[in-house]
Design goal:
By secondary structure, this protein is mainly alpha-helical. The chain is about 70% helix and about 0% strand. The protein contains four helices and no strands. Helix 1 (about 10-25) crosses helix 3 (about 45-55) and helix 2 (about 30-40) packs across helix 3 (about 45-55). The radius of gyration is 12 Å and the shape is globular.
Length: about 70
């Protein structure tokens, strides 16, 4: 991922944190709440909202598939 002129630094780092969350969700059986604390230090609903905005699906759906 390279920063773009159309992407603010905050949005760029948000994408990085959400991508990291996706990697953890795919590789572990940790609860979304714990993953949220690891990646953003926020509540699970904040992670879910940001995750859905970036990937178009909630993180719980990925966790259920894996």
């Amino acid at each position: 991922m390279h920063p773009s002129r159309t992407c603010s630094p905050a949005h760029f780092y948000l994408k990085i944190r959400i991508a990291h969350a996706r990697d953890i969700i795919r590789s572990s059986h940790l609860p979304i709440t714990e993953i949220a604390m690891m990646c953003r230090g926020e509540c699970s609903s904040c992670l879910s909202r940001c995750y859905r905005a970036v990937f178009g699906i909630p993180p719980a759906r990925i966790a259920l598939k894996e």
